[in-house]
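Let's study a protein:

___
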Amino acid sequence: MRRSSNIFLIFAAALIAGGAGLSVGRSNLPLPRWLSAVLPAADPGAVQPAPTGPIIYYRDPDGAPKCSPAPAKTASGKEYLAVRSSQEVSFEKAPPVAMPGGGTVPLGEVAAIKLTRGPTSIRTENGQLAVYIFVDIRDRDLGG
């Protein structure tokens, strides 16, 4: 009898703690200071610079790999988020490329990189992920 009452008390305490945690988590109240010190969380006071430049495209607000050249809405009615030029991936600040004979050169001197929109896919060969990089070498001296 005593054992079953202990199990019931432990179960009830866990249920109460879980319910309290759920209600606190769903409320948008700040965490207590003692808990903020224990949990590694992002600094809510950190100010991110505002995006600048023209709008390049619009992306899905739910993180789905969908984008649109014009403002659009998801099936659930959410507006797509604008992506400005300061937020876009840039290869201009890429690290230098090591040359076979030694030394380095800026990436822009050996390659022209363009970010284009196209169909995405994941390819596999014999169960292993495979990556295909297409390079146009027409009218190029490969130095072989």
